[in-house]
């Protein structure tokens, strides 16, 4: 698998349910970031978790990081139709000039 | 909240023509980047820029591409002779520092269509 690979590729849930998206990566990282992209639009930074952190919260978002398994999860609680978008994890590799490696993304559809 | 501004939002150009995509990073940021996203594919790193020089570039960033910071505020990406496969969304980003520092701020992108 490639650096920053998310699963599932697509997720469809009912409004009010929680959405969990996973990301796996291969190399050591400085941090892992999650971004959101509405169709055809720009990337919006959601949350960053550093390699020495295990869990982080921001509003309805909860991110976990397990560096031993090289994986992260993004949980969106009490989802809304407006959360419908593509979500990307991106890793900032350790020991290198800063650049992000993105996964292919997860398409989340929240049905009203 | 500070923003990264990109212009134009959409550019259509003929194959073989030169295009310049413009970006205004956040004023106190020191690191600048260009990424691209071909329709339906993942976002790919093109180049990073610090202290008025390229710090890293990907295989995609060949001799057809160049970046410049012509003044204290703008950061440009030039494609000298566009090809059909250059059609993509191009994102500019900036960050305050590198590595452990923190997140990036991305612009809204320029959709480049080469015909």
Description:
The complex is a heterodimer of chains A (112) and B (115). With 112 residues, chain A is mainly beta. Chain A has strands at 5-7, 10-14, 19-24, 29-37, 43-50, 55-58, 61-66, 71-76, 85-93, 100-102, 106-111. Chain A is 0% helix and 58% strand. Chain A is globular, with a radius of gyration of 13 Å. Chain A starts with a strand and ends with a strand. The mean pLDDT of chain A is 90. Chain B contains no helices and eleven strands. Chain B has strands at 5-7, 10-13, 19-24, 31-37, 43-50, 53-57, 65-68, 75-79, 88-95, 105-106, 110-114. In chain B, strands 2, 4, 5, 6, 9, 10 and 11 form a seven-stranded mixed β-sheet that branches. Chain B has a four-stranded antiparallel β-sheet with strand order 1-3-8-7, with no helix packed on it. In chain B, a hairpin with a 6-residue loop joins strand 7 (65-68) and strand 8 (75-79). Chain B starts with a strand and ends with a strand. In chain B, 35% of the residues are buried. The mean pLDDT of chain B is 91. The chains are: A mainly beta (112), B mainly beta (115). Chain A binds chain B through residues 30-31, 33, 35, 40-45, 48, 50, 88, 90, 92, 94, 96-105, and chain B through 31, 33, 35, 41-45, 48, 50, 55-56, 89, 91, 95, 98-109, 111.
